[in-house]
Amino acid sequence: MQTAERIIARGEWDPASASDHIALDHDERHRRRFRYVAKGGTAFLLNLPRATVIGHGDAIALADGRLIAVTAAPEPLMAVRAGPGIGLVRLAWHIGNRHLPAEIQADRILLREDHVIRHMLEGLGASVDAIHAPFTPEQGAYAGGAHGHDHHHGDGHHHDHAAPPGRERHRHHHAH
């Protein structure tokens, strides 16, 4: 069976070069080691140095050089919107206070379906709708970047930010 020991971030690879595709929900995209079978039948073992959130649009690099394109699969969610007397920022505070994974958008917050949280939010005056959509919650301030990067300033000054294990790094070249 093929193994995969690195993830290439969206924008750092050409999606046309994917040899197969896989749609994974949020939990399935947050792994260190797991066996997967992609849509076209490619079986592989993900074997990363540490648990990593694989983003929508990232690629899983197989040991033989093939790339598997990753998309965020739809899953049962709640779309939370501000209601009479309560703003979205206040709702975000209540959600964050409970350390819930949340995808924050301009006009709504997406959460995993949870009847207890739904009841709390509706009690605060929020509008809560059940939806089926991809879930890509915020990673948090302490999660670190999705990938490392280098900075070359052209003045002999160089910054190298290593990628977390299992992630590809990329370079930025800046002219000053």
What is the number of beta strands?
13
Beta-strand proportion? 35-45%
Rg over CA atoms, rounded to whole Å, is 19 Å
Helix proportion: 10-25%
Q: Structural class, from helix and strand content?
A: mainly beta
Adjacency order of strands in the biggest sheet? 2-6-5-1-4-3
Mean of the pLDDT scores? Answer: 85
Assembly type: single chain
Structure description:
11% of the residues lie in helices and 43% in strands. It is built from two helices and 13 strands. The strands form three sheets. A six-stranded mixed beta sheet has the order 2-6-5-1-4-3, with no helix packed on it. It has a four-stranded antiparallel beta sheet with strand order 8-9-7-10. Strands 12-11-13 form a three-stranded mixed beta sheet, with no helix packed on it. It is elongated, with a radius of gyration of 19 Å.
Short summary:
The chain has 176 residues and is mainly beta. The protein contains two helices and 13 strands, in the order E-E-E-E-E-E-E-H-E-E-H-E-E-E-E. Strand 3 and strand 4 form a beta hairpin.
Task: Based on the model shown, name its key terms.
176 residues; mainly beta; four-stranded antiparallel sheet; 2 helices; 13 strands; 11% helix
Summarize the topology.
Blueprint: E1 2-8, E2 20-24, E3 30-37, E4 43-53, E5 59-62, E6 67-72, E7 74-81, H1 88-97, E8 103-104, E9 109-112, H2 115-124, E10 127-134, E11 149-152, E12 158-161, E13 170-173
